[in-house]
Structure formats: C-alpha cells, structure tokens
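Example noted here:
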Amino acid sequence: MSGRSLPGLPPPRPIPIRERVSILFIEKTQIDVLDGAFVLVDENGIRTHIPVGGVACLMLEPGTRISHAAITLAARAGTLLIWIGEAGVRLYAAGQPGGARSDRLLYQARLALDDDARLRVVRRMYELRFGDEAPSRRSIDQLRGIEGARVREMYKLIAQRFGVRWDGRRYDPDDWDNSDVVNRCLSSATAALYGITEAAILAAGYAPAVGFLHTGKPQSFVYDIADIVKFEAVVPEAFRVAAAFEGRRPLEGRRIEDPVAEVRRRCRDAFRRTDILSRLIPLIENVLAAGGMTVPEAPDEVMPLAFPDKDPSGDAGHRG
C-alpha cells in the first residue's frame, strides 16, 4: 500500500482481509523500511521486499528485530504483527492494526455480560462447529464439558484415520524438542490459525480478549472463533504431516525433514484453498448476531474499520 495516490485516482486504502495472503513466518532477520517499502535484511545484508499491505499477519519468531518505521508501516497497512516463540509454541505479544472500535467493543461486551445473550452465542458456536443443535437446557459450563468430550473423540478418530499414535493434546512448552511430533505439528498449525483469526477480529473492530466460551485469556475470543474451523482448516494437515514423518514416508513426492515447517506450508495452502480469510469476519458477525442484540449505531467521530470493504473504483487492475 503506497502512501501517495496517482492523479485522478482516490487515495489508497488497506486491501480487504479477504484478498490478502494469510500469514508469513519471519525469523533471524531485521525488518525495516526502505524507500517506503517493507524489507527484510539478513546477516549478509541481503534485502527481501515484503508486500506488507497484502499480508494479513506476520509471525515474528526469535532472532527477529523490527524498526519503529516498520511497525508504523504495518499498522497503517492493517497488517497484524505477532511475536511468537520458536515454531509458534508461545505467543508473547501482538499489535493492533487500525485499533478496536468503541461501538463494536461495547456491543461485544454487552453480549458477553448478559448471561442469556452469552449462552445464545455459545450455542451458535456449538452448532457451527459440530453441525448440529446444542443440547437444550444446558449451561455454558455444561456445554463446555460436552464440547471437550466431542473434541477429544474427534482427535482420536483423526489419529486413527492417519495411523498416528495419540496420547492426547499435551506437551511441555519448556521441553519443546522432546514433545511428540503430532503435538508439535498441532501447535504450529493452531498458531497459524490463531494469527489470522486475531487479525480478522481486530480488523472487524472487536477485542480478542472478550470471549464467550473461553474467558480470562488475552486471546479468548480468538480461541472461540478459531475453534469453529480448526478441525476443518488445520488439524488434519497436522496429523497428515506427523503420520508421514513418523512413517518416514514421502508426502506428495517429498520426504519431510522438518515436520513443523511442513505443517506451516500446508496450512498456508489450506487457508488459500478453503478461502478462510473471506469467511472469518462473516463468521464473527454470525456468531455475535445469535446474541439477539442490535448492533449500536456508530457515532460520527468513530474510527473506520481497519479493512474497509467497499466497491473498488476503476477496473480490476487498479487498487482504489
């Protein structure tokens, strides 16, 4: 996204999230701005340009240094920066492109604080995740327990499908290298999904921390939304890669040397194949609409959405 418009064309605006590349992982490099462009500079001084305005989320791994100018450019372009541990096993901090909107925050908070509305939202999440209606006359805690049992069974069935030994979703973040392969693959896959989900939540003007089923975490609402599509979008890819790696079998003609890196590539391709970025914001709105409350009118002075999705001007070759 350039900061200057051409004569006769309206000023540029951020590319809608549905049209962006989903996610990029960056490690052991310096990120800076050169001639108004986002660049990576490695230890040998080699520069690589990144079209930051066309990326939804950048995951910054250990060994990455980023300048103030680069963070400013990413914020203006509406690209979320997330600082993670090696292989995405930990999420330390995240930026906030465009900023959350007070009208959307108040709407989200009203839903979360109203017991009946919150239960309706959780029931909608359940229905979207499992494809059937949530059991009637159940509290949120009861639905959480039912969901947990169904998720454990889904993991078990997918493990059987791919022939992977499965002892449950457990690993030690402080002993990452000795964790089993399938759990490392799952952590890498879900980190990628959480990154683009948080980018979508912030783009729509909501707060990642204000969850409905999950609570008390900085990314509670991220987990709520990502879990709806997790078993469709990333979990099978993690098991597929783990099965190939443990069996020392080629996957699509290639032998796997690094299962975590392979999962990232396959998740990136799966995001593109399933068009996940175009679905996340409508999914968020669908879930919140179940609460039965009216979205408040935005005040005149409200900040615009980080990713406005208006009809483009000119033909498909121009970015209005």
